[in-house]
Design brief:
By secondary structure, the chain is α+β, with helices and mostly antiparallel strands. The chain has nine helices and 20 strands. The structure holds FE2/S2 (inorganic) cluster and fe (ii) ion.
Length: 401
């Protein structure tokens, strides 16, 4: 029986197959590509330290196979897509969509039943291709609200130049998205650190934040969260330029994808009420990052980061080191959401090591997983009974900071 406290940080954060952390992460479905990226050529995928190739065969079925050909290890990213599978470009070994070798042109025996080529289940949902790399049978693919709810979906992935793809371990990326304090200090989104309460929820860390931007005479509680193991789930409000116009609420989920022990990238979905007039801000910051001038004596790795939110995040999490040494930290009260996240992840890693299902993995298929994210706003004198205690706690905290 392994207890969470038995695990070293290395055992928690490393992603390789057979490691405690790697086994934990393999209990979940992961987005591995945007659905639009999978067209008529194979797509290389690297996740959890495994190199894979994703393709849609000529019959329209998706398949995710080990990248390196079993013959002499050429990459199937150059493979030729077939009716049912893919053929290696080097000597023509042909794999069906389950990874079975069905043809070897230079061999008298065409099949190779003893070779188990890696092949993982894949599913398309909400604009992403999801894959499951864990022990079979695969659990149900969670239909998180953003993946199935009404609206106009925009899916994006990390860009190594502009931000949102980090040269560091995945947990640093997830801790950053769980960290509300840096929104004020690093990004300047709030004037002062808002009061918040982290709660251990059914799917991860649920955060209740006292929203400073409530309408006059109102109080507002912002609900966001980190869905285990790495999804940042939040809403974004586009406030009107002119008084009287309605506020538009966007719903967002951002997966931090562990590429290997020391690299991760984001896969992000934004749900707009209707198609936005201009494409999301993703392209904007890439351009900004590239255009930024650097002082001739600026020896810092990224130079000036202030004012470029994604670059601010990238610089902070990468500057902690490829795998931060958490034994040297001094976390405080403002970090309690992160400490709760760490506890829940350590619980999950221990659960998997003990042969149990970790929190966040579905036991049964659900039509939709409602993560209950957004803003609750009430007239200050009409807060429902069910929210009065939480609000009093947040307001008391706000008075102390
Ligand atoms: S390396 Fe793929 S067929 Fe030879
Ligand atoms: Fe940030």
């Amino acid at each position: 029986m392994i207890r969470p406290s038995d695990l070293s940080w290395d055992e928690v954060v490393r992603v390789g197959a057979g490691t405690p952390g790697g086994n934990y992460l393999r209990s979940f479905w992961w987005p591995v590509a945007l659905a639009d990226e999978v067209k008529d050529i194979p797509v290389p995928v690297k996740i959890l330290g495994e190199e894979l190739v994703l393709f849609r065969d000529l019959s329209g079925h998706l398949s995710l196979l080990g990248a390196y050909c079993a013959h002499r290890r050429a990459s199937l990213e150059y493979g030729i897509i077939q009716d049912n599978g893919i053929r290696c470009a080097y000597h023509g070994w042909c794999y069906d969509r389950t990874g079975k070798i069905v043809d070897r042109p230079a061999e008298p025996i065409k099949t190779a039943p003893n070779i188990n080529h890696p092949c993982y289940p894949v599913r398309e949902l909400g604009g992403f291709i999801f894959a499951y790399l864990g022990k079979r049978p695969a659990p149900p693919l969670p239909r998180y609200d953003v993946l199935v709810q009404d609206g106009f979906r925009v899916v994006e992935r990390g860009d190594p130049d502009g931000g949102k793809a980090y040269k560091c371990n995945w947990l640093q990326g997830v801790e950053n998205t769980t960290d509300t304090t840096h929104l004020t200090y690093l990004h300047g989104i709030y004037k002062s650190c808002p009061a918040f309460k982290p709660v251990e929820g059914d799917y991860g860390v649920k955060l209740y934040i006292l929203e400073p931007r409530a309408q006059p005479g109102h109080v507002a509680i912002r609900k966001r969260g980190t869905v285990l193991p790495t999804i940042n789930r939040k809403s974004r409000e586009l406030y009107p330029k002119n008084p009287g116009e309605p506020t538009t609420t966007l719903q967002q989920a951002i997966w931090v994808i562990p590429i290997d022990d020391t690299h991760c990238e984001e896969m992000r979905i934004t749900v707009y009420p209707e198609a936005p007039a201009e494409k999301s801000y993703h392209g904007g910051y890439v351009k900004q990052a590239k255009q930024r001038e650097r002082k001739s004596y600026d020896r810092r790795f990224y130079g000036e980061i202030r004012g470029n939110v994604p670059l601010e995040d990238k610089a902070m999490v990468e500057s902690q080191g490829a795998i931060v040494d958490r034994n040297l930290e001094h976390p405080g009260w403002g970090d309690r959401a992160i400490l709760l996240l760490r506890k829940m992840i350590r619980d999950g890693v221990a659960a998997v090591a003990n042969g149990e299902l970790p929190k966040g993995v579905l036991k049964e298929d659900l039509a939709m997983v409602d993560l209950d994210i957004g803003i609750e706003q009430y007239p200050a004198d009409a807060v429902p009974q069910s929210r009065q205690e939480l609000l009093a706690e947040l307001q008391e905290q706000a008075a102390q900071i």
